[in-house]
Amino acid sequence: MMDATKNIEIYRRVFDAVNRGDEAALDELLTEDVVDHNPIPEQGPGVEGFKKWMRYVRTAFPDVHVTVEDTLSQGDRVAGRVTWRGTHGGPLAGVAASGKRVEFTAIHIVRFENGKAAEWWGVADLLGALQQIRE
Q: What separation in angstroms does the CA of 101 have from each of 2, 15, 18, 129?
């Protein structure tokens, strides 16, 4: 039970770091060789690749705020549902900044190892985000 609670807290702290743009915090929350099973184009491996992903997100949405809505934990895994909110201020999937407010959801499954996220699967509603940008 304690590991499940700890893993959920680490999952939440990853998004706190994203909200602050705190790349250094990822070193404490992710294994050095964390595997992102849904990387952005040209995202490198490990925690450095995750940092590149964070820079990409914060360029696309400089005022991004992620809210963790739900979490479930079983064994060494956490499943979570989050809501992303922000202003489209930079390129996203090849679409130039629109200045529009965007809100979309994502679902994750994260495997933990020795108190850090070691594998990350994620599916975001990017189609929904792009539709809001183009409206």
A: 38, 19, 18, 9
Give the percent of the chain with pLDDT over 90.
Answer: 95
Residue 105 parent element (H or E): strand 101-113
Tell me the percentage of the chain whose pLDDT exceeds 70: 99
- What b/e sequence results for 26-57 when a residue is b if at least 16 CB atoms lie within 10 Å of its CB, and e otherwise? bbebbbeebbbeebeeeeeeebebbbbbbebb
Tell me which residue of 30, 1, 3, 37 sits closest to 14, measured CA to CA: 30
Give the model confidence (pLDDT) of 98-127 as tens digits.
Answer: 999 999 999 999 999 999 999 999 999 999
CB 107 within 8 A of CB 70: no
Residues 35 and 65: beta-carbon distance below 8 Å = no
pTM of model > 0.90: yes
Q: What domains does the chain contain, in order, with CATH numbers?
A: 2-134 (3.10.450.50)
